[in-house]
Amino acid sequence: xxxxxxxxxxxxxxxxxxxxxxxxxxxxxxxxxxxxxxxxxxxxxxxxxxxxxxxxxxxxxxxxxxxxxxxxxxxxxxxxxxxxxxxxxxxxxxxxxxxxxxxxxxxxxxxxxxxxxxxxxxxxxxxxxxxxxxxxxxxxxxxxxxxxxxxxxxxxxxxxxxxxxxxxxxxxxxxxxxxxxxxxxxxxxxxxxxxxxxxxxxxxxxxxxxxxxxxxxxxxxxxxxxxxxxxxxxxxxxxxxxxxxxxxxxxxxxxxxxxxxxxxxxxxxxxxxxxxxxxxxxxxxxxxxxxxxxxxxxxxxxxxxxxxxxxxxxxxxxxxxxxxxxxxxxxxxxxxxxxxxxxxxxxxxxxxxxxxxxxxxxxxxxxxxxxxxxxxxxxxxxxxxxxxxxxxxxxxxxxxxxxxxxxxxxxxxxxxxxxxxxxxxxxxxxxxxxxxxxxxxxxxxxxxxxxxxxxxxxxxxxxxxxxxxxxxxxxxxxxxxxxxxxxxxxxxxxxxxxxxxxxxxxxxxxxxxxxxxxxxxxxxxxxxxxxxxxxxxxxxxxxxxxxxxxxxxxxxxxxxxxxxxxxxxxxxxxxxxxxxxxxxxxxxxxxxxxxxxxxxxxxxxxxxxxxxxxxxxxxxxxxxxxxxxxxxxxxxxxxxxxxxxxxxxxxxxxxxxxxxxxxxxxxxxxxxxxxxxxxxxxxxxxxxxxxxxxxxxxxxxxxxxxxxxxxxxxxxxxxxxxxxxxxxxxxxxxxxxxxxxxxxxxxxxxxxxxxxxxxxxxxxxxxxxxxxxxxxxxxxxxxxxxxxxxxxxxxxxxxxxxxxxxxxxxxxxxxxxxxxxxxxxxxxxxx
Length: 831
Known about the structure:
Elements: H1 12-25, E1 40-43, E2 71-72, E3 79-82, E4 88-92, E5 99-100, E6 107-114, E7 120-123, E8 147-151, E9 154-159, H2 161-164, E10 167-173, E11 188-196, E12 203-212, E13 233-243, E14 249-259, E15 272-279, E16 283-291, H3 298-307, E17 325-334, E18 339-349, E19 352-354, E20 360-363, H4 366-369, H5 376-402, H6 409-417, H7 421-424, E21 428-433, E22 439-440, E23 449-451, H8 464-470, H9 472-477, H10 479-492, E24 497-502, H11 504-510, E25 515-519, H12 553-566, H13 573-590, E26 603-606, E27 616-618, H14 621-641, H15 644-665, E28 683-684, H16 689-697, H17 705-720, E29 733-734, E30 750-751, H18 752-764, H19 768-785, E31 795-796, E32 802-803, H20 815-825
Antiparallel strand pairs: 1-8, 2-3, 3-4, 4-5, 6-7, 6-12, 8-9, 9-10, 10-11, 11-18, 12-17, 13-14, 14-15, 15-18, 16-17, 19-20, 20-21, 21-22, 21-23, 24-25, 26-27, 28-29, 30-31, 31-32
Helix pairs in contact: 10-12, 10-13, 12-13, 12-14, 13-14, 14-15, 14-16, 16-18, 18-19, 18-20
């Protein structure tokens, strides 16, 4: 067990020498419980100043309230979150399914007894469980005392010393590490406890960690767990000798939460959980493997509250459908002003996932631990061995970003906190099994499939028009996963699916019964499928609009292929060659929408792009600009893969389309929304999305810089500063005189990811002050005022009421980093 020692009775000169030597060799050790300044902070259990909620018109949208905390769990491993009031409440363990319920038996507690003083024990939660569960426990920790902080993937609880009598800080994280394709997938969480004695007397401390046997609880999509409990769940105490880092004998002790079975697991819900801690000199570990958390919990609390010990009992009992939990406690003594570190691990091994279509897949982490579903203890052991290494690696990764004082503090923290969705978004990282239970691979690769949901309200994997904005953190830190997902898309372009579906928008808005083909050849799919069906196999689950005739998807696909090539060093020609046939088919498909022969595609008089309630007719700034950028990208890709004829063809087409775009859409101040709809004169915040990508990927000017600056300044003056007092981001649309619009719900919304994209474009054009003012609006609503932390929504209105929480698109904040790096490389673009 890593720990800090006290001063003891060393002579002063020798003590000073030892301390200096210690600091020289371990410069970061004493600061490990220091919370970075850039982390987001809120008082433990204290509501935000002005809590918001979902729009009243959206009764089915998820709204679990503001008690949210940073998740733990690796990419594709399943995740869960401990709220900042101290309860384990949000569960994304069954792939693609959101569950929200406090599980009282999953808890931390502390025992403190000063020398010659009165003992105190308290559960580290500000809320008491319902229905009398664990009523014997002390649930008196006061809301507002202490601080919760988060800088994903780390988060902290700093408890109030006046309440506990000791300084106690918990650091929690999972090993999400950049360019790491092994440990970033691990199903494990580390809980590092830093306990410090602020007094001049010795204090005895004990830390309790309890957990409920959850094997079987994630077998379905039900909101609660009471209908999904397993028979024959069983907990057992385990101990394993270790060779400590100093040569002293240490052991690993904990509880495995399992079930009675024969052989390896065969079902998605089956597997193990484990909690573990290192035991060594100066520490005493005690345990109770089984208690019933729906009852009073007296058998745990009475001994723990008496002297910080549990009864060391391992009852031979299995469940018959009721909850069973277990607990471990680590007891130690702190000398005056001494600090110690107590690391704990929580692991889970649920290797199989199964979607609604019945196919079974095996999670990526099983490549390193096996797919038997019986390796939770092994995972916990590895975690406790590598805890310090992982923690330091995360700090080193984040340091250059969070210590860059040239950027606002709120921005430095939000950069990392918006990354939570990469793991927490119903994420899949797995390979399919064939009928014989062996790994199966598709033609696109030998790598595991990867994707995460648009959101749980719109549960589509890898939604392409959204990941166009949201995938910037993925390409930056896990580029092989990003390229793998784009290969999945490349495989689908030339496929078709003639199955017909009801066109929902036509039914709701036009009151017509219209059907549409699920996927036409040449169209890039909207999504890779849904967990209720067969994702990666049966694409285009979304049927609100006829996405086979959307105008933005094909262009965005081409632009992301080009972006991913550029952002990985412009060297991976294999990636470009792999995608080239898909790129050509996608661009050829778009040509049918140029009905007047001017080189520029036209929109079809229905919402045929990512703004799927906002009708566009004729040429449009948004879809047309994306098409211009895609023509340029196709030209460059063609040159890279050696297709000079295609390069020449698409370069000529770009010149023709560019002229039409400027001639038909430029109004002298900004680019019109479109040419023929009632929305024609709307000031669209996202009007130059194509130029944004062109700037970030070296495609050059789609329109002259003076036009770009004029359009962006118009957006800033109207969509930002005249909406929500200039404090909530960029409204999607405003009238030509800056008047609010009510033509459709989306025009009056701020889209968080779009706002970051617009801010990124401003940065790339040298409008730094305007960019940060624009992006700060999202921080104000999400992280400062309305309580949307770790559930950043797609959209909110001027009143701050949201739609579609836990959304993919806000990952666009990382595009701002690329834009600032671009500005440094090109001094002429600086303001």
